[in-house]
């Protein structure tokens, strides 16, 4: 197995690059998607987030109110660390599981992990190759305004 870490700034083109790796035959693991899955409805992750941050981070339908949680954790670094402590181990556990399955199916597989905070979370040494997707700041801003308001 050969492990590739893919990272880059917001709206730099990570998802587009990841899809291209998949087309070329790599197994791809999207950690942003895992970050959403681990706090999905009915998960232990969601339960633990509500325990730590209160009912105010739950939407009316019982799902995670992401903007409400973002308002808390992006205002206070200690709270962000607390959230990371809940979700990051579970994200890594699921990623490792997917990777192990891929390696059993094909020992020569190339596995590409898309991790927005790869460097910040100290994972750079874990990969045989790092790919950094980059685009000018103005272009990334324009993409975000166009697509996400
Ligand atoms: C706080 C949450 C619910 C807000 O969700 P929301 O959909 O509003 O924003 P989104 O996830 O798109 O993130 C917005 C921006 O903040 C950055 N960001 C997200 N989480 C973190 C974090 N823990 N530390 C620093 N920056 C972060 C993202 O890279 C992105 O640029 C969400 O970001 C979250 O669950 N974060 C913790 C998990 C995590 O670390 N995810 C990062 C990718 S592995
Ligand atoms: N090389 C490229 N040329 C033109 N447009 C691109 C290119 N790469 C990405 N884009 C466009 O830029 C936007 C953001 O790309 P993408 O979703 O891949 O970024 P991302 O880094 O995964 O974003 P996020 O940080 O939000 O997960 C998309 O509309 C995509 O089509």
From TrEMBL:
Q: What is its main location?
A: cytoplasm
Protein name in UniProt: Dephospho-CoA kinase
| Reaction equations catalysed | 3'-dephospho-CoA + ATP = ADP + CoA + H(+)
Q: Please report the organism this UniProt entry assigns to the protein.
A: Luteimicrobium album
Q: Which HAMAP family match?
A: Dephospho_CoA_kinase (MF_00376)
Please name the pathway.
Cofactor biosynthesis; coenzyme A biosynthesis; CoA from (R)-pantothenate: step 5/5
Q: Which family does it belong to?
A: Belongs to the CoaE family.
Q: Which InterPro entries match?
A: Depp_CoAkinase (IPR001977), P-loop_NTPase (IPR027417)
Subcellular location field: Cytoplasm
Q: What class of enzyme is it?
A: transferase
* Physiological role: Catalyzes the phosphorylation of the 3'-hydroxyl group of dephosphocoenzyme A to form coenzyme A.
Q: Does the keyword ATP-binding apply?
A: yes
